Amino acid sequence: MKSYLSYLIVLIASTTNAIAMAAQEQKSTHHLSASSLKVATIDWTQTETLLALGVNPIAAAQVIDYNSWVKAPVIPSDTFDLGLRTQPNLERLSELKPDRIFISPMFQSLESQLSRIAPVTNIALYKKSNISWQALKDFTRTMASQTKTDKAAEKLITQSETKLAQLAQKIPPNTPKLIMIQFMDARHVRVFGDNSMYKVAANEIGLDSAWLGKTNAWGFSLVGIDKLNNIKGQLVIIDPLPAGVEQHLQNDQFWQYLVKQTGNPVLKISPVWSFGAIPSTVRFATLLTNKLTKEAK
Fold first, then answer.
1. Residue 84 in contact with residue 42, Cβ under 8 Å?
2. Distance between CA 40 and CA 228 in Å, rounded?
3. Residue 224 belongs to what H/E stretch?
4. 284 and 197 in contact (C-beta within 8 Å)?
5. Could you read off the pLDDT of 128-142 as tens digits, one per residue?
6. Count of alpha carbons within 13 angstroms of residue 276, beta-carbon side
7. How is residue 267 annotated by DSSP?
8. Which of 137, 138, 185, 234, CA to CA, is 20 to 30 A from 201?
9. Which alpha helices (H) appear in the chain, and where do they start and end?
């Protein structure tokens, strides 16, 4: 009897220890995957997506320019600025000891150097004939799978689709197709159409692009402003404008003619990353809707 009781005591103690160890292991794993994963990013599309998933990179490239061109989500002040995307500060990055470095194919020439510091994950989004709302969701889920933030990804997608549906309800009836452009200089623009994030955003709120010309893998054609002549639609200018362009356009007779022949006022939109993912898509749709509804009043 005595030996049996001793056996029971040992068995209970062993089971208790095993449960405690399993709980501790699960806690440690969750801690490492959800909050302690130290990632660095070179590509802004990946940076904005990680931030939207609740992952704050320990380092990112060209933070100051990100704040000018992408705007949101905001990069935390304690994220180290690695400098140029094409020439990141490798020495400092090495000192930060990231667990993983994210890049896109645009920066794959850096892969061999970066892989000496940490594992590199190369994820593509912008490819010819690839960009759609589904592609943006797939990209988000891929980023989430690499950072153990799958639940955050589903929440982001659901909230974004709800927001876009709400915006679609606010679009004034008979809104014309959109001529969405970014000025490169006073005479040349990127005009966005198929395979662009701006077109995806417009489509998701019930609008469309007026540009039917060919576009590249980034969803735009680089053309002279004369190529916009006779296109029916509403001009949408996405900031920022190069220095001096705004003043030039105010006195440019051909530009004034272009605006007049569209029959619609020009909409000017604050900077939104042209090659962004879901965060930029929802932000562009929001800013565009705000402009259209304000104009309709």
1. no
2. 41
3. strand 220-224
4. yes
5. 888 999 999 999 999
6. 27
7. E
8. 185
9. 2-34, 44-52, 63-69, 90-96, 111-114, 133-147, 150-170, 197-204, 245-250, 253-262, 278-296
